[in-house]
Design goal:
The protein is an alpha/beta fold and 509 residues long. The chain is 28% helix and 24% strand. The chain has 16 helices and 22 strands. The strands form four sheets. It has a nine-stranded mixed β-sheet with strand order 11-10-8-3-2-1-22-16-17. A hairpin with a 6-residue loop joins β12 and β13. α8 crosses α9 and α10 runs antiparallel to α13. The longest helix is centred in the middle third of the chain and has 22 residues.
Length: 509
């Protein structure tokens, strides 16, 4: 098992525009390991017919089909160049590297062991945070695939609801009635209670919620020889009890922060506004709706005693949330949101930050790392390649995605991020900055420490589609380019899609 082998990695930032849908596929001629980081987009259509599917659904369709097909770049110009540089062992030279999960549909070859009608499996889906544009494609993904595990950050039900409201506000921070009314049932159920939402949707999907006291989690990917294919199955092991060395790891971290003040202010303002509405309709405040919202509690005549009602609203109950978003209480929601939140508020503090890449222990990797745009490659009459980058022994080839973690808003968060990810940055080639590269979440120090020597410029990838939110910000684009970082903006146009293919020659021990 010590001979040289190919490990191929495909990473794609799918064209969903203002939102986030990132996938990774690791393959070694056996069972692949597949992961997803966030799945959502703004402005989704609610219909599901073939002619009116929204962008996120179209990209999920392309992704799921890509898992049933392989891409074989043996005769691709960049592959021919790389093999001249690296002189792979004759067996690998003759066999060539095989990828799955690429969007290059015109060059797909069906995987014979997989029936095309079979749902592909995803090992783990990471949800960075609960903004609608990062989760509202999850229901469709569950429908199209078999998801083994979903990882979510720690946060309260009330805070999830506040995050949802924040994500459907406009660029001025004002909640939009149409956006509120268009929240689909599964998304709201997932906000209320992720466990129940998943149990109702997929009995075989395990939910992993990061513990607030231990904000880190790690999954090791181990190879196991597959006698049938002659390759290796790639299996996740969160406890590192396998007999082989891991060849890849996925590590998540959430910033340590407290959103209690925002949650308290929102709850207090909401109770006050609901009382005002209810007193206009029913001075005795005994309606069935009040009983539903406040768990059967009756308001005292002295409304100065409302403090005890702050914890009576069950934000983990779907029906309660749907009632709060109804026309009768919509004004209360909007006013409470406006009172509790301001432009300086740091939301999504516990957003999961993910490193996906090689283990930190020394590995003799030789890699060919290529970058592509759209769904074509250099083999086609219409080239769609962004560029080709061939690297030598032990190059960084990892990926870090920050979700909406407010890293740049607070020196404490920035220090924590750079401390925790200091060693991971040395293995990282591609970086997805926080909050789509918004100015308020940005800091030039985010780009410190990348590459083997700590002074390389990472590829910066942003998912955005409108100048309305100033994503990515001019500051982020200029700062990244000033140190030589390529900046990739993926919109909702498929031609902007960004795919990385990494061929790795290594030894499986």
């Amino acid at each position: 098992m010590n001979k040289h082998e190919f490990l191929t990695v495909t990473r794609t930032q799918w064209a969903v525009g203002q939102g986030f849908f990132h996938t990774g596929a690791l393959y070694a001629d056996g069972k692949p390991f597949i992961y997803v980081f966030d799945c959502g987009a703004k402005g989704n259509a609610k219909t599901g017919t073939e002619t009116t599917k929204d962008r996120i659904q179209l990209e999920i369709d392309k992704f799921t089909e890509s898992l049933k097909n392989y891409w074989f770049p043996r005769y691709n110009p960049y592959w021919q160049h790389w093999q001249k540089v690296h002189y792979p062992p004759q067996e690998l030279h003759d066999r060539g590297a095989i990828f799955i999960g690429t969007p290059f549909e015109d060059e797909w070859h069906p995987i014979l062991q997989i029936q095309q009608s079979t749902k592909p499996s995803i090992d783990i889906v990471y949800i960075s945070h609960f903004d609608e544009d990062h989760i509202n494609g999850l229901d469709y993904l569950l429908n199209k695939t078999n998801i083994k595990e979903i990882s979510i950050p720690y946060t309260s039900a009330a805070k999830r609801f506040i995050d949802l409201l924040n994500s459907i506000s406009d660029e001025h921070g004002t909640l939009q009635t149409t956006a509120i009314q268009n929240i689909d049932n599964f998304t709201l159920q997932f906000i209320a209670n992720p466990s129940i939402a998943l149990a109702n949707r997929s009995a075989n999907t395990v939910l992993r919620e990061v513990n607030n006291r231990n904000s880190n989690s790690i999954t090791y990917i181990h190879p196991t020889y597959n006698q049938q294919t002659g390759g290796y199955d790639l299996n996740p092991d969160p406890f590192q009890v396998a007999s082989t060395k891991p060849i890849w790891i996925l590590y998540t971290h959430s910033l340590k922060g407290d959103a209690h003040n925002i949650e308290y202010s929102f709850k207090k303002a909401l109770v006050e506004e609901i009382i005002k509405i209810q007193e206009q309709d029913d001075p005795n405040c005994n309606s069935s709706e009040i009983a539903k919202i406040f768990g059967g509690q009756r308001f005292p005549s002295d409304t100065s005693c409302i403090e005890k009602f702050l914890h009576q609203i069950d934000f983990s109950d779907y029906e309660t949330l749907r009632l709060l978003l109804s026309r009768k209480y919509l004004s209360a929601i909007k006013k409470a949101y406006r009172k509790a939140l301001n432009k300086k508020a740091s939301l999504n503090i516990t957003s999961q930050i993910l490193y996906s890449g090689p283990p930190l222990s020394p590995y003799n990797f030789k890699t060919c790392h290529a970058y592509w745009r759209g769904d074509k490659t250099l083999n086609n009459d219409r080239p769609g390649s962004y560029g080709v980058n061939t690297s030598f022994a032990s190059p960084p080839c990892g990926w870090i995605g920050c979700g909406d973690a407010p890293i740049g808003r607070n020196p404490q968060y920035l220090t924590e991020f750079n401390r925790v990810f200091e060693t991971f940055k040395t293995e990282t080639r591609t970086f997805a900055p926080p909050h789509h590269g918004s100015e308020s979440y940005w800091s030039d120090k985010l780009l410190d420490g990348f590459g083997f020597w700590g002074n390389e410029a990472p590829i910066c990838v942003f998912s955005a589609n409108s100048l309305r939110w100033s994503h990515p910000s001019t500051k982020a684009i200029l700062s990244a380019n000033s140190i030589g970082s390529p900046t990739i903006v993926v919109t909702n146009d498929a031609r902007s899609r960004f795919t990385e293919t990494i061929e790795i020659i290594t030894q499986f021990d």
